[in-house]
Design brief:
about 475 residues, mainly alpha, Fumarase C, Chain B, domain 1, two-stranded antiparallel ribbon, two-stranded parallel sheet, Pur_lyase, lyase, PurB_C
Amino acid sequence: MVSLADADPPIALGALDGRYRGAVAPLVDHLSEAALNRRRVHVEVEWLVFQTTHGVVPGVRSLTDDEVEALRAVVTDFGPAEVAELGEIERVTVHDVKAVEYFLKERLTRIAPADTDRGLAELIHFGCTSEDVNNLSYALMVKGAVEQVWLPKARALVEQVSSMARELKDVPLLAHTHGQPATPTTMGKELAVLAHRLGRQLRRIDGQEYLGKFNGATGTFGAHALALPDVDWPAVSREFVEGLGLEWNPLTTQIESHDWQAELYADVARFNRILHNLCTDVWTYISMGYFAQVRGQGTVGSSTMPHKVNPIRFENAEANLEVSNALLDVLGSTLVQSRLQRDLTDSSMQRNIGTAFGHSLLALDNVARGLSGLDAVPEAMAADLERNWEVLGEPIQSAMRALGAQGVPGMDEPYERLKELTRGRRIDGGDLREFVRGLGLPADVEARFVALTPQTYTALASRLVDDHLA
């Protein structure tokens, strides 16, 4: 057979870079290997600029404004050609961060003439261990991916669910607890619960801290303090890290401890799990006929059954959320551990961050598409309510309890009396009204329950949507 591995252009091994590339492409600018190298170049450039503009090393001239602009352009112009060039250098160095150092030194010779400014090149990667560059790069990458790609998509989805909740806040729905008919609610209120839960997780994620360290091979500023003992290195480190838009971690081993990553991934995974809950609930409502899939459904639902429109968007989302969570969970549990002052498990593990967010982003896309194709079917919801008049036993026995507590005679054993009427059998409106009229309720209470139907027994559901889904 023809070897697909030799195809040109190369064929993707994974689904995210193949079948689903379009949905996850925005993450490439943040969480790909090329994005990692671009961020490494960014950190190295900013460290060089910082040293010269802050006089960290005595006797070294400051870079001119034009030189700083040219160096920063190396970052903004970093594209496929630079990726390939850096790859060639790494094949010689067999070290990714060292390759970045050599790449920048070559660029610096074009920006600042080597015969007059030979010393400037030695400030590239000065005092750094590779992890000083890597941890800052990953923090900036993840921050960018979350704030610029994932969060906007997640917020848009939560607003979509919230809009549906507001639209359907008055549509009565038979609840099902333990799979059994239960106190009616509204479709809008049930969607509002999910939107509220998702929104709470987004607020946690929005407040995430992104930490960075810059303190040398074992976190002691060892080489720094011996080379330049008069410099307040912790102060320099803090100013540099915070200048990149990150929170400074003052106390680490060789690596930044990655606790912030574990915290973030736990929150994103929790968001994913709530979204998974939304998928299974909406899938079930579709199967019950409460939603019709009518808009934007030009697909083949079944290869043999022409009547079918399968809820594939929600099923696809479920699978991708499960893959995302498996990766987020292992990232969170593994990254917080490191043998003594350093091992390399985090290096391999962090290369899966993009895949974890990619599957979550793909799920967000599928859920949004799936919801956009739904129309509520109030008639189906009303029909189920009409078949379940027994759910009105709850408010009647509760009212009898309240009356009995107030001393109204004849209100004995209300729960048991309603249980005898309703458990294990179906009743209709006539049965219930006849029962109510025989209870001896005060006239106003009797009138209230005679008029009550399963469709009108939604209590404060609509108000809860208005009050808590602003």
